[in-house]
Design a protein that fits this description.
With about 130 residues, the chain is of the alpha+beta class. The chain has one domain (about 25-130): Immunoglobulin-like (Sandwich), CATH 2.60.40. About 15% of the residues lie in helices and about 30% in strands. The chain has 1 helix and 7 strands. It has one helix at about 1-20, and strands at about 40-50, 60-65, 70-75, 85-90, 95, 110-115, 125-130. It has a 5-stranded mixed beta sheet, with no helix packed on it. It has a two-stranded antiparallel ribbon with strand order 1-4.
């Protein structure tokens, strides 16, 4: 009889644990929380060289209406090995993800990144125009 009580108790504990582990909040494919925020913009942009020091010669010009970012880099900058950094509005995410160095050497073909809102409903493409000092 004691064996059945132990098994029943173990099953009850397992049921409570499993019920307590259900997801109450929706998350996206990256494991990020999906919120109700519809804002979707870039608030700051930085370009770093291979030594992780800025290569900008002046502040970037971010136009949230035209969805463009214009940045001027120092003369002699290796445009093939840059690390872009975006500051986004709360809960937004960037697509594609930046996982390492990015090649900005083809100035005639600017890079495009998409900012996705916290509710994942709004998507805005930002074009990055790089010029050399």
């Amino acid at each position: 009889m004691r064996k059945y009580i132990k098994i029943t108790g173990a099953l009850l504990i397992a049921a409570f644990v499993m019920a307590g582990c259900k997801k109450d909040y929706p998350v996206d494919e990256d494991g990020l929380l999906i919120t109700t925020r519809a804002e979707c913009y870039v608030s700051n942009f930085e370009l770093l060289g291979t030594d992780f020091v800025t290569v900008r010669s002046k502040a970037p010009v971010i136009d949230t209406t035209a969805q463009t970012i214009r940045v001027e880099v120092l003369f002699g900058t290796d445009l093939r090995n840059l690390y872009p950094q975006f500051s986004l509005v709360t809960d937004a995410k960037l697509d594609p993800k930046i996982t390492g160095k990015v090649d900005f050497s083809n100035l005639a073909s600017p890079k495009v990144y998409t900012v996705v809102s916290g509710n994942r409903q709004v998507r805005k493409d930002y074009t990055i125009y790089v010029t050399v000092q």
